[in-house]
Structures are given as structure tokens and as C-alpha cells.
Amino acid sequence: MLRDTPTTIYLKDYQPPEYLIDQVELSFELGETETRVRSTLHIRENPASEQASGTLFLHGEQLELVSLLLDGKPLESDEYQLDDEGLTIYKIPAQCLLESEVRILPQNNTALEGLYKSGGMFCTQCEAEGFRKITWFLDRPDVMSRFTTTITADRQRYPVLLSNGNPVNHTELAEGRHQITWQDPFPKPAYLFALVAGDLRSIEDSHTTPSGREVALKIYVEPENIEKCDHAMASLKHAMRWDEQCYGREYDLDIYMIVAVNDFNMGAMENKGLNIFNSKYVLASPETATDRDFQGIESVIAHEYFHNWTGNRITCRDWFQLSLKEGLTVFRDQEFSADMGSRGVKRIEDVRLLRAHQFAEDASPMAHPVRPDSYMEINNFYTVTVYEKGAEVVRMQANLLGRDLYRKATDLYFERFDGQAVTTDDFVQCMADASGRDFSQFKRWYSQAGTPELNISSAYDAGQQTYTLTIEQHCPATPGQADKAPFLIPLAMGLLDSDGHEMPLTLADETDAVAGTRMLEVSERRQPFIFTDIKEQPVPALLRGFSAPVKVHYGYGDEELMFLMANEQDGFCRWDAAQTLAQRILLARVESPEAEVPAGFIAAFENALADTGSDKALLCEVLTLPSEGYLGDQMKEVDVEGIHRSRESLKKRLALALKARFLKVYRENSLEGPYVPDAASISRRSLKNLALSYLMQLEDADVEQLCIDQFNAGDNMTDVLSALSLMADRESSAGEQLLEQFYQQWQNDPLVMDKWFTLQALSKRPDTLDRVKALMRHPAFSIANPNKVRALIGAFCSANATGFHAADGSGYQFLGDRVLELDGLNPQVASRMVRIMARWQRYDSQRQQMMKAQLERILKTEGVSRDVFEIASKSLEQ
Ligand code: PHE
Ligand code: ZN
Description:
Layout: E1 9-10, E2 19-30, E3 35-45, E4 56-59, E5 64-70, E6 73-74, E7 80-83, E8 86-89, E9 95-104, E10 114-118, E11 121-125, E12 145-154, E13 160-163, E14 166-172, E15 177-188, E16 195-198, E17 201-208, E18 214-221, H1 230-247, E19 255-261, E20 268-269, E21 274-278, H2 291-306, E22 315-316, H3 322-340, H4 343-362, E23 374-375, H5 384-401, H6 403-417, E24 421-422, H7 424-435, H8 444-447, E25 453-461, E26 466-474, E27 489-496, E28 518-522, E29 526-531, E30 539-542, E31 551-554, H9 558-567, H10 571-591, H11 599-610, H12 616-623, H13 628-633, H14 640-657, H15 659-668, H16 679-695, H17 701-713, H18 717-728, H19 733-746, H20 750-761, H21 768-775, H22 786-799, H23 801-804, H24 810-823, H25 827-834, H26 845-860, H27 866-876
Parallel strand pairs: 2-12, 18-19, 19-21, 22-24, 25-31
Antiparallel strand pairs: 1-23, 2-3, 3-9, 4-8, 5-6, 5-9, 7-8, 10-11, 11-16, 12-15, 13-16, 14-15, 17-18, 20-21, 25-26, 26-29, 27-28, 27-30
Helix pairs in contact: 1-2, 2-3, 3-4, 3-5, 4-5, 5-6, 6-7, 9-10, 10-12, 10-14, 12-16, 15-16, 16-18, 17-18, 19-20, 20-22, 24-25, 24-26, 25-27, 26-27
The chain binds phenylalanine (PHE) and zinc ion (ZN).
The site of zinc ion has 4 residues, from helix 3.
């Protein structure tokens, strides 16, 4: 909790550690009222550090000292000093052993950082700086140690005792206790430490690596969930094989363990050999998990597995380098998912997420570079910028190099830096060295925040048969960065002739035409590209595959967009053309609600629906209108009500015009037989449920019956939930009844209850905030459980725009109250909530005042956490 204004940490102040800890032995005595942690640290001076001052500072928070010995001798009270942040030892020898014992209280730990209890089990979360709540340590990622961990606990309550590495010893003790020791042969930073103790069941499988190592794979869950682990296990095996084939990386320990816990701040954690997961990303059955859940599990399981190389074997020098592991690992998991399912759709989903959240972050007071240069609280920097934009930045490098050179570059990276803690510059250097290219301009992607914008204009010269694209780039100012230097932007493009065929392209200084996609490298503020031998006025297809995380402005006519929708071969561009067109229509209808929908747009929808041969998953993406949030981002000032009305009425207009088509699509895509979450079935279910959502705009009794029947018949959560959420929007007793029925059936399944909460939080009914407040008192709700908070409070405040932004400010008041309530329990969760208000400038002045008032109220509250303080104060800075 806060004493003064939190200090800001700067990248430019980085210093290597003065001391290293080569080895550490930990011993945990787990108890019901307290836990004792004994540690032995093998410390030595860091030969790479310039000044060893003789004074050692070890991080440590909320630790109660029991004993402290230096080289076997108890330390006198004038030989060390303890404060809220750690332990200072004044005269430390160049090499020594420090033994300590501390008392900690995991059962009171509601922040879910360090050692805590989730249900009946003990577990840990140490990234980024949670290890210091377990014992004194150099809790920074460039200090890598070999860990040996002994756990002692009651045998009956905690039959399973886990830590990193391999088990080496198990002993039965007196009084019903037992003890087990784990040894991790790989040096690692403390943030990768993990411990689990509980009454858990596991499923087991095995994987043989190309070099012949047999790896035992285990997934541990609470007994009632043992039937829900198969999909996670299958995903793990796919991920292991994929990393062997695509990156030549194999697993390095004899055992790989995953544990699912119900109380977790994030998605999952890549602790060496012992991943700890939010149960949301492990547990699945057709009855309880949606298609999205199945896909989410596959990708998070893969993500954490991939970290074993990109994060664990090679880790970050300091937390400013977070994207070194996260951007790269997200890129890897994206490509894995693309290979497992539909590549084109995966790309569109990723772009959707990036545009909706990362572009918004880049345009907010919280904008920061992929490699930030300062922070107050590192937990605030696990952002879409570090993760998703970071992944785009790696993707651009992969695309600039091409497949083989990129593989050569990553091979070099693994060889050069294995076992080290490095920087994003080190990563880029491998790209440069493997390809012989200069990446100095490219590196601005890491250091400059903001979303670059490309203004593109074209000119066709029929006489000369040349076509010129003139590209201007600029990047809006972001906090602390008024002016930006130009980026190196790979712009993949093509030109289509009037038949929709790809034109062969020759740039003015070239001799040979290249058919198909060209990658233009835009490096200047203003740069013309002249194509020769162009026989007719083309339609340009720009940013194919979304080749760079930028905004493209090009003055397409509506006809050209429809032409691209019909003819362009790149799935992303086709989808983007449809989105741009829909966006135009939607925004026009915000201004004048009665504006006609162009007949061509309805016809394009109709053609798309009629094309039975097309990729159904891509079709779904094309038929999904831009979200309310994204539309708001395109306006000077967000008109919450207007956007909502416009989008709903366009959906209704389409449903009216195309009712028969939608019904046909609905019927044709209903599946018989048992549920399978494969790409083909998933896309049919999405299309069917998308059709239903259009049809439900009609307020037609037959359609409503169709929806109710789907709910009742559903053997899978995807169909049930789609139907239920459509019914939950209605102010009808039928909707109420289904919600109650659903509750009765699933009240004992926490993950399904999360869905039940979210559905009600997102309801378009006018009384939703009152319902949300009432649901907070529901026995299935708990303010201490992050999943519940996100499902109910988070969903309402971040995804129910009309409810949250109600003109009377009730939504803002509600969020302000919840932030303060949560901050006392779990600052990380509170700080994610306060972020929702960081974009107050985007609204009208009344809403601005009300949001600002809440932020100011939060800031003025005594004892507010560093996490919340940083977001609230930066949000108010102009
Ligand atoms: N490192 C985790 C991941 O991306 C995320 C995480 C961060 C989890 C901090 C917990 C705490 O896979
Ligand atoms: Zn990660």
C-alpha cells in the first residue's frame, strides 16, 4: 500500500546485478495457520558488475523474520536492516551462504501473488515480482539460479506436492505429514518458481521427442474435474510436435505438469516444468465449454508450452524486455493456431482484437512502446501492446526475412542466447545477422508508441501506362513522444484489373514483373511507388494479410470495396473491404438514422450468404458487423446510443431483407451427431448462430421458438449459450425462465456460472446495472475470484457500452465503487478495471466530467495501491 507517490523505474537506469545467486535451497512447511519458508542462498559477487559495494539488498515483502544466518552465524541487529521492500545486509563477503527462515500467511493472501490458497490447495504466482512475497531474494529476471525445493505438508489434505523440475525424494513423516523434494537442473529467474500442494487428481500421457527423450505429461485438477482434461492434453501434444517441426525446439525435462486453479489473476503461467493455469484454460467438455473455449484452451496451452524456449531457456534481462518473451510467444501461438484450424480466420480474429484493443490503447493516455521505457508497477504492463503488438512486430520480421531466413535467425537466437537473460535488441540482432539486413530503422517499432497511419493516394497515367501509389506515413503523438521518426513498414499489396485478376507488377527501377503480392518497404515520410506497364486503371489491394500494425487510409469508392469483396484473393483484404463498407454505412446512420442502406451492400450480403462453396468460417467474419466499440473509435466523439441504434437497426434491416436466406443458412448448418470441436463443425455452428442472431432482430414469434428449441435441444454449450444470450436481451418471461433453468442445471460448475453472469451483464435490457448489482449478492458470485469479477463487473463495464455509459453516470459510479472495493483485495484486478475509464476523453463533456470525477476520487483515496495509482494518475494527465 502506498506511502508516498510511487517511484518510476526507467530502462535507462538498468545496471547488472552486483551479486548473483547460483543456487538456492528452499524448504516449505505448509500449515493451516501459517507457512514457514527456509532458504539457503549461494551468493557470490557478479564478475560482470563494475562496483561490488559490499552491501546486498534482497527483495522481500510481507515476510516475518524468524532467523537469519550469514555463513552459519546469526546476524546481529546492526548488521542488517529490514523495511517494507526488503532486507539490506551491510557487509557481505564476495562469496557466502545466507540462510533465512520466514513466516508467511498464504491463507490471507487475496492479491493472488506469491504463495496463496485457491480453494483447498496451495499454489504460487511469481511473475513478475511475486517471489519476494515468499522469501528474500534478488527478484529480478537477470539473476538465474538452480532451485531445489522441499515441501512438507499434511498427507491427507495435500497428497500431491509439486514444484519445478524432477522429483528426487519422498518421505513419510510423523503426525500424518509427508515431504517431497524437487530439483530443477535448469537455472531460472525466481519469477519461474512454482509450488502446488493439494488433493488433486491427474491424467497422464507421454510424448517422445525427436531425440528420443520420453516426457511424462500430467494435468492436475480437483477431483470433480478429472473428466474435463482431455482437450488440454491433446492440445499440449499438438503444441510439442509443432514446436519440434517449426522451430526445432524440443522439451528438456522428464516431466511436464499443468495444474488448473480456480483463483488466478491472468490466463496461465509458464513456470518451468510446472505450468499453473486459470481453470478456464484447461477444463472443457462439450456440455460446458463453447467452441471459443476449446480454441482458447488450445492456444493458451500452446502459449505456455512455447515459453519453455521463448521465456524460460532464454529469458528477459529486465521487465522492460517483457515483449522479448511475450510478443514472440504470442506470434508462435498464433501461427500454431493458424496451422491447427483456419489460417485466414485466425488472422482476421487477431486483427480484430488488435484493432479493438491495442489501437485503442495506443490512442489512450496509457499508450506505451512495445518496449516501454518506464513504469511504476510492472504488473500494469502486461498489455495488448506488449503482447499483441509485440507479436505483430515479430511477424513483420518473419515476413521481411521469409520462411527460411526467419528459421535461420531463430536457430541463431536459441544457440546464441540459451541460458541467458537478454533484450529485444539481442533478438533483432539475430534477424540482422542471419539475413545480412540492417534493422536499425525497424527497431523503432520497439521504442516508439502509437499506431502509424498511412495516407495513400493513387494516380493512373493512361498515356505512360504507369500507376503511382504515393504513401505518406505519420504517427500521432503519445505521452512523452511528441514527434516520431518514420517507421520501416512492410506493405503487402497487389493490383487487380477490371476482371478481378492480379496484375503483374514491375516497379520503375526493375526489369522483371512479379505476379502476385508485392511487399513494398515504406521507410520515408512520403514515398511514391511507380508501377510500369499498367494497362488499365487498377483497384489496389492494400495491406494484404495485415502485413503491418498500421491504419491505412485510401479513398476507395463503395463500388471498389464491393469489387474487392467479390474478387480479392487475400482473405484479410476481402474481410476488411466488407468491414470498411459496413463501417461507412453504420457511421452514416449514426448521423442520420434514416439514411438508406445502399442496395449494393444488401446484395453483397445476399451473394455471400448464397455462395455455399465459400469458406464458412471466413463468411462468418465477413457477415459480422464491426463492433460498437470499434465504431466508437472511428468517431471524433463516441456517440454510445447512436452507435448502438445504428448497428441494431442495420442488423434488423438486413434480417428483414434476407430473412429467407438466413433461415436457409440456419437450417443447412444445423449439425447432427455428436459434438466435435473441429474447424469445419465450429464454422458451421458459428454461421448458424450468426444467422440466428440476425433473425432474432425481427422479434418474430417463430424465430423466437427456434431459439428456445435450440436452447432446449442443445447438447453443446456453443448452441445453448448462443440461444440463451439472445433470449437474455429480451424483457420477456421466456428469457427469465431460460436463465433460471440454466442456473438450476449448472449452479455447481463455476466456469459455466461465469458465462451465466456475463450473459446477464451484457444484456441490452435497460435494467441491467440493477441486475448486475443484485447478482453481486448472488451466492455463486465472489468478489475475491478474478474470473467472477471479470465475468460480471468487467463484462458490464467494458462490453456493455449503453449500460456502462448511461447518461446519469450510474455506470461510472458503480465502477468507481468496485475499483476501491477490489483494490483492498487484489490490486492487479482493480487496476485492470480502472483502465476502462482511461479513455474518458473520447466521450462528450458531461460523461468526461463524470469519469474524471471517479478517477479523481480513486486517486484521493488513502492507501490506494501502486497499480491503481499509476493507471488513474496517467489517465488524468493531459
Ligand atoms: N506470463 C504469463 C503468460 O503470458 C502471463 C502472466 C503474467 C501470468 C503475470 C501471471 C502473472 O503466459
Ligand atoms: Zn506469455
